[in-house]
């Protein structure tokens, strides 16, 4: 039992109750009851990870060590909590260390949570996957645990205001069958993507209704979200803008 993690879970449950959230959790039996697992989940909003850990908690009160960007750990309030929960900081300028930390956790029998997409999908469909989750599984011998969260984008996602009041949204979390760590990183990543794509379609089909034009609804289902191609173009434009700002700061630093 971990007192800090247990208290955070209790607090989260009270907040969810206050918001009137309605949960549908499936596939709990696919989470390893003991031993390691790479919990790979989709990224539609800022709160996905809080829901992605529910199946593990229901499977014998297991805790997931989530990989999160270093900036969260630098926060004066959130940082101490993240460290107390033994989550893993990811410094995108030095990803090797976070990868090693994750593999060490897995070799000690922990569950490690990771976003294969790396960044939020503005289309709410699956983006291309990075190979990190597969490489962790192969190196540690841990199975991949494909997990899908659906509905969390309604609460807080990129480019839209938070909706933290009592709205009664439905949140679905589904876990697919574990994938054995076999093959090349590319082959394993492809199997993971296909498993998660199928589970996402299953949960989307069971969610509804989808009001036409709503921002949280995928374009393919009549919503206002951008298509995957449009979202990828937006991400590329954002990356170019950030690179330009970074270059400008470096030039300014050289000038000084």
Automatic annotation (TrEMBL):
Signal peptide: none annotated. InterPro entries: Plipid/glycerol_acylTrfase. The keyword Acyltransferase applies. CDD domains: LPLAT_AGPAT-like. SMART domains: PlsC. Residues 37-152 form the Phospholipid/glycerol acyltransferase domain. GO terms for molecular function: acyltransferase activity. Keywords: Acyltransferase, Transferase. SUPFAM superfamilies: Glycerol-3-phosphate (1)-acyltransferase. It holds the Pfam family Acyltransferase. This is Lysophospholipid acyltransferase family protein. It comes from Gordonia hydrophobica.
